[in-house]
Amino acid sequence: MKPYIALLAAALIVSNSLAETSTFDFKDPKGVNNVTFTLDAPLESISGTTNGISGTITLDPENPTEVTGKIIVDAKSLRVPNAVMQDHMLGDGWLDTEAHPEISFEVSEILNRQKDGPSGTAEVTGVFSLKGISKKITAPVKVTYLPGRLADRTGGSTEGDLLVVRTTFTFSRSEFGIKPGENLDKVSDTVTVSLAIAGAAPKN
After folding, report:
1. Phi/psi at 66 (nearest 5 deg)?
2. Does an H or E element contain 156, and which?
């Protein structure tokens, strides 16, 4: 190998190994991060929300084609307006949150990334886990990287970067063993989930 080719190869290896990655924490002390869910059946439309969100995502914000991490929702934090309906939803007949306290999405791959300034769209593939059942799904996402903006969100108390993630996707409750085929007039089998969360990467 010619000397200059060897030097170029070494430089590429070093630059790749030094690619700056950041870990973004989605446990929001302000409680603003939220997930909403809707089940629109013929007789009733049920909507709920939660801000019991945690988890981390690690990536290179300038080239986020490879990403690792998991977003976790505290299943017991899910809320609907009707108190009786909420008790049923969290109980062992439906979500069984005592036995399955977490709902999670573990990221494995980003596809079809399109960048537009600080924002971008992509398809994120990962494993969605609910009530003890895990399935691979792909969801469209919009991601906005905001370097140096963490202080704006925290009132100047902490310096760092933000990663804002928004997505909407659907799944079938029957595929996760939640009353398959039952109560379809009042509780839709299709669940629509919308997520709007910001992760923080503080700087020392």
Report:
1. -115, 130
2. none
Task: Return the CATH class of domain 20-202.
Answer: mainly beta
**Contact predicate 94/100, CB 8 Å:** no
User: Please, are residues 202 and 163 in contact by the beta-carbon 8 Å criterion?
Assistant: no
Average pLDDT over residues 163-187: 96
Query: Which band of pLDDT confidence, cut at 50, 70 and 90, is reported for residue 127?
Result: very high
- Residue extents of the structural domains in the chain: 20-202
Q: Write out the two tokens for 9.
A: 């190869």
Q: Kindly report the pTM of this predicted structure.
A: 0.85
> What is the C-alpha to C-alpha distance for residues 202 and 23, in angstroms, rounded to an integer?
9
Is residue 117's pLDDT more than 80? Answer: no
Are 33 and 197 in contact by the 8 Å Cβ rule? The answer is yes
Dmax (CA) of the chain: 75
Q: Which residue's structure tokens are 């990536």?
A: 59
CA 26 – CA 70 distance, rounded (Å): 10
Question: How many whole angstroms separate alpha carbon 113 and alpha carbon 140?
Answer: 10
* Nearest Cα to Cα of residue 161 among 16, 35, 21: 21
